[in-house]
Design goal:
The chain is built from 13 helices and no strands. By secondary structure, it is an all-alpha fold. It has one domain.
Length: 367
């Protein structure tokens, strides 16, 4: 997630520079045919183009609103994970005692039990985060566009790719727990299952009485709910029929736009010629320059067509890049940073040792 107030203009231009060049080419071809080859019939009235542009603007707005809703829901889900993780930790810290124990457990063993439960929760966070980073066919990871690849090269966090899942999760699980979840598909769900089983064992030992066990089990149920909500966003894309039609409509407008703009600029040039005919100028050279510009005023439609095409296409790309909030891009929810923040917070609550430092991010991006 980009954390500065404004995206650098240079970054946006670098991201879209190939399309900007394409828009200039698409706008230049019809002008050459219109002005150089004198195909004066080669234009489209602006009225239907205005109606089409209005319709495309509504479609782009609809997609961007839907994409933002997906992003904001993902952020709320992970905000819930942050808060519930703290609640889980204070329950672990204060509910597990010798008050109702069948056999009194030494304080050091109690501390190790609490550390085990908290570390297993960090393992759940790690497993869930890695599951959210798995590539899906519709995500931007799989786009072949060089502009996206270069942009991600500059802003994408490399540690998530270079640390294997096994290496990231092993420090937080016992060997038996790790071997149990390894062959399973949904490893995060399996970890919560192990947590639930461990709570039952502690209740059977009397280290947690029945009411407290029920409260802690409810927290695990809430974790399952938050995980399911994250999976819902990850595994169900923005509907492809809307995404595809939106893409086609935007490009239809971009391809037709130069043909609707040319005639308007030629009319402006004709009016300038009429004004020049009515007024005398100081020098003959100046008159010829102004007359030349007026006769070929249609060429000014090229930058305006490119600008309008760039606006519509960039807004469409923003929606496309925002619709999948767990990819790890500069516009996504920073689940890696949130996970590390949760880990530091909850391990400090139990006075744990060897607590990792916060991530240091580059280029004002957090992941």
């Amino acid at each position: 997630m980009y954390i500065k107030r404004i995206f650098p203009v240079s970054g946006v231009l670098k991201w879209t520079r190939r399309h900007i060049l394409l828009f200039f080419i698409l706008a230049t071809i019809p002008v050459i045919l219109f002005d150089v080859l004198h195909w004066k019939w080669l234009h489209i009235p602006w009225l239907p183009m205005g109606v089409l542009g209005t319709a495309v603007a509504f479609l782009v707005s609809f997609k961007n609103n839907a994409s933002y809703d997906r992003l904001w829901e993902a952020r709320k889900i992970w905000g819930g994970i942050v808060n519930t993780s703290r609640s889980w930790t204070i329950m672990v810290k204060d509910f597990i005692t010798n008050t109702h124990a069948k056999e009194v457990v030494a304080d050091e063993n109690l501390r190790l039990i609490k550390r085990e439960l908290v570390h297993r929760h960090v393992a759940w966070l790690t497993a869930l985060r890695y599951q959210m980073r798995v590539d899906k066919p519709w995500e931007m990871h799989n786009k072949s566009a060089k502009s996206n690849a270069e942009f991600r090269e500059n802003f994408y966090l490399v540690c998530e790719d270079t640390i294997p899942f096994k290496e990231a999760i092993e420090p937080y699980l016992s060997k038996d727990d790790y071997n149990e979840i390894l062959p399973k598909g949904n490893k995060a769900s399996q970890i919560l299952g192990i947590q639930s089983r461990r709570l039952k064992e502690l209740m059977d030992q009397g280290l947690i009485e029945d009411f407290r066990h029920m409260e802690m089990a409810n927290v695990l149920v809430e974790f399952y709910g938050l995980q399911g909500k994250s999976e819902r966003i990850k595994n169900f894309p923005y509907p492809r029929q809307y995404a595809t039609l939106n893409y086609l409509f935007v490009w239809s407008f971009i391809l037709l736009l130069p043909y609707g703009v040319m005639e308007g600029f030629e009319v402006i040039g004709d009016r300038v010629l009429e004004e020049l005919a009515l007024h005398e100028v100081q020098t003959d050279v100046m008159h010829r320059v102004q007359e030349f510009i007026a006769r070929h005023f249609v060429w000014f439609s090229i930058p305006f067509s490119a600008l309008l095409s760039w606006v519509f296409h960039t807004m469409e790309k923003i929606g496309e890049n925002t619709e999948n909030p767990f990819e790890g891009g500069p516009n996504d929810v920073p689940i890696t940073d949130l996970s590390r923040g949760i880990e530091i917070d909850i391990r400090e609550l139990i006075d744990d040792t060897d607590i990792p430092d916060p991530y240091v991010w580059r280029n004002d991006i957090v992941m």
